[in-house]
Amino acid sequence: MNGKIKGMLQAAPLIRKAPAPDPSIWLFSSTDNRHFNYNSRALFLYVLEHCPDINALYVMDDDKARARLSAQYGAGHFIETRSKEGMEKALSAGVWFTSAGLPVYGTHLDEGRLVINLWHGIPLKRIVLQDPSYSRLSRLYFKKVFSDNYTDVVTTSSAVSKVMQESFAVPEKKMRIWGEPRCDLLFQNFDISAYFRVQYPELIDVKKRVLYAPTFRTGRPVRLFPFPDFDRDALEDFLEEKKILLCIRLHLAEADQNPMPESKWVRYLNEDRADDVMSVLQGFDLLVTDYSSIYLDYLLLDRPIIFLPYDLAEYEKEHGFTFPYEEVTPGKKPATQKQFLEALESGLEQDEERESRQRIKRMFHENQYPCSGDICKRVRERIKK
Fold first, then answer.
1. In the chain, fewer beta carbons within 10 Å around the N or the C end?
2. Top-level CATH class of 2-179+373-384?
3. Which CATH code for domain 185-364?
């Protein structure tokens, strides 16, 4: 909080001195201005490739990451906002896209520019102003620095739009049901087999791939396999027999912890191996999660999902849900390892939950059904108008 307030105070004099924002400069930012991920990343790459008339800039305050990305995509497209010059460059942009936070903090940032909140997922749990853990001061700060600056908030359906209005304290007229740009990545041409051969060259006989993506808990670590009968050897034997690669992707806040060691068939796929999980999500035959909204994106692929809500009552008390959990989670919820392995086998071979997934998919993805993979194009055209 103190750091954000400091940034806001630093930005204020620059806003008054800055020239009028240029509508041909589009600026993108994401988590803490230090991560190349989420909807901002997907839309930035699309604009970079398809919009030669737009000067696309991405805020990256991590020096090493900025150097790496500059070498890959071009140095002129990545800036920092820690210096006065960097903030002035950010303020020159006529359009801002953010997935978390803002490129520069201040008030009246929407004057002369569009500030588009793309967010970073469909909220299953209560977020920001609906989060019961937010203090009164935090709510006031968020409303003044974020909500009042947004010109548009992008979402995926009418049902989600109502949640986002309350979460960000914005009127209905600011809601845009355009879909999530990053979901286009689910339909790109991507050789997932080649990708995994590079990541795990010793695995040449993989038949199925499963992604396990648990969410973050406040104040306590995630329990990866929360079963009373958990048996690592039995799990390994099952994966070996079925030739299933199980990749674990921890939440960004826990990505450096790796609570259990890797093995031949259990590997980590954190941010160091995949900047954005959406770029590889289409390569998995089944998803395992608990409360992560990643499953709501995965619904677009129409593939089986398994849920492990082992601490449902505790998590709901801490965070709360925006939709009734049991009603919007179309998949088996095993309580033991035996049930978990059975769910894996049946999901990969029979897929009994398809009808219920279709219903939930229509509820959350109003403009992406049937799926076309043209969300970035839609956003670009509407922003230009």
1. C
2. alpha beta
3. 3.40.50.12580
